[in-house]
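User: Round two. Same drill as before: sequence, then structure, for each protein.

Assistant: Same drill it is. First protein:
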Amino acid sequence: MQSSIDHTTHIAHLATADPGVLSRVRKDARGTTAVEFGLVAGPFFLLMLGIITVGLHYFTITSLEYGVAAAARKIRTGEAQTQNMTVASFRQLVCDEAGSYVACDGNLVIHLKRGATFADLDPPISCLTNGNLTPSGNTAANAVSTYSGAASATVLVTACYNWQLGFSLWRSLWSLLSVTPTSGDKTIISATTTFRTEPYN
């Protein structure tokens, strides 16, 4: 106790003898940069991860949309039908056109639907059923023409993709904010195109 009193008295004496002592203590900024970096680094890196994840998300959407549009052109022109392309081959074509950001595995499901008029294509196929990707109603080994119909038919091509890229935290947050179908921490990306096939016969 006596030591504490003596220490306080000593500081008071220094302050009285040299008023600049306390001023120098207040102005001592050593370690400030480290403290400020510690406060800012966490939110900064979290923001960066978020930006990267959102960028990957939109890049994958664009890739899938391009893949579906490019592959569907084979059906629209009748090339897929006249060459007896199978559903499995058409799915692979979507993957090839979409590029490496879309994995050609169980996370990608392709749906083909036909009708005499565009009204017959309503309602469109939902990508989610009971929280999981809706299984394709198209048998992989069957010809595309089985589901796309003959010339001048209306066709709906839908690709549903369970996006696995990005960071899990941001996928979960994106699932809460996204207008695309979601389930838990899954983010389901979909791409759709509809058209009338050309009179290729």
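Second protein:
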Amino acid sequence: MESPTACSGGILTNDQCRRIEAAVRNAEKLTSAQIVPLVVPASHYYPQAELVGGLILGYLMAFAVHFFLESESFLLFSAIFAVFLMVALQACRHIPVLKRNFLRKADAKHEVRKAAADAFHRHALSATSNRAAVLIYVSLFERRVWVLADKAADQAVGSRIWQDAVSVVTDAMRQGEPDKGLIQAVTLCGKALAPFFPPASNQVNELPDLILGGEPAN
């Protein structure tokens, strides 16, 4: 399935979308299983990370200015801190690379896993005819990937393939090329699924070849 406006949200470029969708179509020529890459900007808003970052950065900036002024007034420091706290909170809210520094790994892992499971059911990957759908969930802010396979696919292939797919995409994200990692992961999954779920003569593409998410749902 193709959508000419699939990349209008700016998560990926139109060219990146086309190449990922082409990789899915090529992989699904080898197998009746369904492979769905899903890319979202973030899996959660992480207000706690914003607050912690705002407090730390606001305090450091206020302390530096107060020190420069050589003042001993607590009231002056409080006023300066209040101003810089607001600035720091807004900075953490709108600059992902800054906010990410105050995000706990455990929180990121939990939210990505939760969002991936929710997406798996919300987009009907659990309702395919052969129960062999695979979701490759990519959350850009957290730089995390989660692969979920329906019952039949998971039992046939095993977790090692999904772990390899996660590693491929994660490594590519570190290089700033998530699309290339997704293409490699899709190809990897397609080849692994092919022996167990060969293409059918009456095969139907039950799911989108690429899904792009918007704002976090939680």
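Residues 1-6 have pLDDT under 50 and may be disordered.

User: Perfect.
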